[in-house]
Amino acid sequence: MKVRLLDIAHARSGDKGDTANVGLIALKPEWYDVLVKYVTEAAAVTHFTGVITGGVQRYELPNLRALNFLLHGALDGGGTLSLKTDAQGKVFSTAMLRMVIDVPDAEAKALALPAYTATV
Amino acid sequence: MSGKKVVRVAGGQGFWGDWLEAPRRQVEGGQVDYLMLDYLAEVTMSILQKQKERDPNMGYARDFVGAMESVLDAVVNKGVKVIANAGGVNPEACAAAVQAMAAKHGAAGKLKIGVITGDNLLPRIDELLASGHELRNMDTGEPLSVVRDRVIAANAYIGSEPIVEALNRGANVVIIGRSTDTALTMAPLRYEFGWAADDWDKLAAGIIAGHIIECGAQCSGGNCLHDWRNIPNLADVGYPIVECSPDGTFVVTKHDNTGGRVSVPTVTEQLVYEMGDPHSYITPDVVADFTSIQLADGGTDRVKVHGIKGRAATDKLKVSIAYRSGYKAVGSLVYSWPDALEKAQMADRILRERLDRLGLTFEQVLSEFVGASATHGPLAGVGAGKDAPEIQYRIGVRDADKAKVERFTREIVPLVLNGPPSVTGFAAGRPKTEEIVAYWPALVDKTVVTTHVEVLS
């Protein structure tokens, strides 16, 4: 089943130099493991293709039911150098929440994950 | 040690430019012991340094004088103490301005102002480089010597120590330059509860309390994505307060009868803001572990925080260095329906061709189409902005050569008459060329930085 992160998580993002950080927080405690399992570093790299120029690091915060992603090369040099509207990475949070993950039907049903039906 | 069972620290400013009403609301809305005001972002020091070069009496966050005026009664008559990193590159001038303001209100002598200096390393850069401190860029590894001739500000991030000293010497207002944001909250807790300099868990708890309230209302409902539609009455938003106990546990809350919300989700969003490696939140006082933080619902607009672990601080201080790094300009035009995005894209092709014909190349040229893809890029999808009522075309350039950037600024507005149709939004005319002051984070041995505390009364 397709699940969109916007429907199972909330997020806040910020900057450190040319790196944007995205804190991704499960909307329900039982959904944290879904984030851990499917929103991997590799998944984030694929998701942000064409948006960032560097790699991705992920940290787990089970105590907050949150993952922290560092997206390198995200801000056109960052800080005052950046020409971007979002020079401080403030809305990488919502960009992350666009991600759609694939969860096996049984697992999705057991956790009552909301299904995402893409509208094109 | 004061023997207090609970100390209340209120956050009243999250950056220079934050809500002017907030400090007064924090001291009038209920009982607080300390008002913490954070004014400094990474680039603020360089702006202040430029102001001081033009006028030796400037170089501090001037908003602070107005903030002090708005809370003067509470400081003088209710015993609220104020701790602020408003000093910028000129804490002495900041203190003098506050004293003059107090004198105007007949309160001269009622303020004991602790002034902390020693963070400013600009006059010592050459001495430091000559004695083997390379001040390498923490991101790129380059030594500072590469940009030495362009450095305009250099400040070490100071921890809680001198703030505690100022409080011990009776200060009721503490003005510091480049302290860490979090020390402004941790220092009064350490002072009140007598926490030892190696009581790592408690110091870490104070730092995390500081991290939660250092961005003002961003932990009490502001900029909160979780359930944002239903966060009550943001027009009257309550700024955050931490109610701390001697054992290092604390409650995040806000005054009664204010808008906004303090809940586990609003606090969690602030905790992950600007986070790096959560196991190691490094400060001059302690290394805090964000994976140890436990949050619990403590009732309406109350979140309990406990379980925080810390470990020994490092032997380094972070140094924030600002240096001149070329020029930039950004301009924009707005194209309307129908086919707004196509028109904006055509304008971009035309402008870039004209820059080519002029032989102008830049270190960076960035085009954005606001309304289609400016913030999420390709993630917005191929159809994004397709039938938009309007699209803002935004283009910026960056280069070391000011003349080239200046020439670029003259190429945008002509498109109004000699480019694609249905264009507006050019009232501001040519964009301004700005000098870029870039940020150079470095580390220095703690032993080379000595702070000084003076208490004026």
Tally of separate domains of chain B: 2
Amount of helix of chain A: 10-25%
DSSP strand count of chain B: 19
Tell me, what's the shape of chain A?
elongated
Gap between N and C termini of chain B: 23 Å
Domain count of chain A, please report it.
1
How much strand of chain A? 25-35%
Backbone CA Rg of chain B = 25 Å
Topology (elements, then pairings):
The complex is a heterodimer of chains A (120) and B (457).
Chain A: E1 2-4, E2 9-16, E3 19-26, H1 32-38, H2 41-47, E4 56-61, E5 66-71, H3 92-96, E6 100-102, H4 105-110
Antiparallel strand pairs in A: 1-6, 2-3, 3-5, 4-5
Chain B: E1 7-13, H1 22-28, E2 34-37, H2 44-54, H3 63-77, E3 81-84, H4 91-104, E4 113-117, H5 125-130, E5 151-156, H6 161-168, E6 173-176, H7 183-193, H8 200-213, E7 241-244, E8 250-253, H9 264-271, E9 281-282, E10 287-289, E11 294-297, E12 303-306, E13 309-311, E14 316-336, H10 340-357, E15 364-370, E16 390-399, H11 402-409, H12 415-418, E17 423-424, E18 434-445, E19 452-456
Parallel strand pairs in B: 1-2, 2-3, 3-6, 4-6
Antiparallel strand pairs in B: 1-7, 4-19, 5-14, 7-8, 8-12, 9-10, 10-13, 11-12, 14-16, 14-17, 14-18, 15-16
